[in-house]
Design brief:
The longest helix has 23 residues. The chain has about 350 residues and is mainly β. The radius of gyration is 28 Å and the shape is globular. The strands form 7 sheets. Strands 18, 19, 20, 25 and 26 form a 5-stranded antiparallel sheet that branches. It has a 5-stranded antiparallel sheet with strand order 21-22-23-24-27. It has a 4-stranded mixed sheet with strand order 2-1-4-8, with no helix packed on it. It folds into 3 domains: about 100 residues, Immunoglobulin-like (Sandwich); about 80 residues, Immunoglobulins (Immunoglobulin-like, Sandwich), CATH 2.60.40.10; about 110 residues, no CATH class. It is built from 2 helices and 27 strands. Helix content is about 10%, strand content about 45%.
Length: about 350
């Protein structure tokens, strides 16, 4: 009788050990399918449903499914450097919608592709990353109930050690400011409504995307409205413009390009020719003032104006004609702007 009970106890112990070993076995990542729209809205473009760009990032074993939205198009593997040429990985042939075509990617690498109808006008890329543990994307934002014209601070809280990230604020009216690649960007929504904000977190093993809705109310005024001639810096508080005058008395306004929340540059005659860079910083804790730093790559007359839209205070500096731009390093530019 004792021998029988001992055998039963050993059997239960063996079963428990086997069950535990099974539970501890590593789970293989399940394959996923990514959808890419062809010609959405009649445009000559491939648009990934997650990244909202022409680049699709997946893992080995995943599938890309192309769906035709409009027009006569194809998805044909191969680059367009020196002329579009198929490379044999896949070719859907030319179709009009509704139609779909899928391809499984079992090898890591970068795979450019194009539309055989429109050539270099319509290109996309599939990036296939090694299988592994991709990040789990997540983020927070403050304030929870923002108003138009105020800066909304986003923070990447993704797990899995992402090495890069891509934000899309769902606000195409903001132009190039609609996307960001930093860990904690600040975005200013210029209109009221509910915006779908997405974060794609990526590491060597893959990508993961999450979305959240941000509802912006019209309860407050727009502090600074960005225009081609106006940079809005420091959470939209400071409006910056630059007016130029040449020796022949012709004049105009520089075109501003934002770099970060606090900095940007202006070009005058050619987008490839940067004429002046500027930065407005909050130095209240150090000198009890907001700071203005600027540098120029020009010797024409430049009238720089920085306006604190909260107080209405203006800060102006002029670089004389035929004089190399003298750098500005003013740590007492806006003493009345600090609390």
């Amino acid at each position: 009788m004792c021998s029988k009970n001992r055998f039963r106890a050993l059997s239960f112990a063996g079963l428990a050990a086997a069950a535990l070993a099974f539970l501890l076995l590593p789970c293989a990542a399940s394959a996923a399918t990514r959808t890419v729209e062809i010609g959405p809205g009649g445009q000559l473009s491939f648009v990934d449903d997650v990244s909202h760009t022409s680049t699709t990032t997946i893992q080995v074993g995943d599938t890309v499914s192309w769906t035709w939205d409009s027009g006569l198009h194809s998805t044909t593997s191969g680059g367009c450097s020196g002329g579009c040429a198929p490379d044999g990985h896949w070719d859907s042939g030319q179709h009009t919608g509704p139609h779909s075509f899928s391809n499984v990617f079992n090898t890591a690498g970068t795979f450019p592709y194009h539309c055989s109808v429109h050539g270099s006008m319509m290109q996309g890329t599939v990036i296939v990353q090694p299988a592994g543990t991709a990040p789990t994307a997540n983020f927070t934002f403050t304030p929870a109930n923002p108003q138009i014209g105020t800066g909304v601070s986003f923070t990447d809280t993704s797990t899995g050690s992402p090495t890069s990230r891509l934000w899309n604020f769902g606000d195409p009216a903001s132009g190039t400011a609609n996307t960001d690649t930093t860990q904690g960007p600040i975005h200013i929504f210029q209109s009221a409504g509910t915006f779908t904000v997405s974060l794609q977190a990526t590491n060597a093993s893959g990508s993961n995307t999450t979305t959240k809705s941000v509802t912006v109310s019209s309860g407050g005024p727009v502090i600074c409205t960005p225009t081609p001639e106006t940079l809005c810096l420091n959470n939209g508080r400071f409006a910056v413009t630059a007016e130029w005058t040449k020796a022949d008395a012709t004049s105009g306004h520089g075109t501003g390009v934002k770099l970060t929340g606090d900095s940007g540059y202006f070009w005058f005659f050619d987008p490839a020719n940067i004429e002046m860079v500027i930065k407005v910083l909050n130095g209240c804790a150090i000198t009890n003032s907001y700071w203005v730093f600027a540098a120029g790559l020009t010797n024409i007359q430049v009238q720089l104006k920085v306006v604190d839209t909260t107080t209405g205070v203006e800060y102006t500096k002029e670089n004389p004609l035929n004089t190399a731009f003298v750098p500005i390093q003013d740590t007492a530019a806006f003493p009345a702007s600090c609390p």
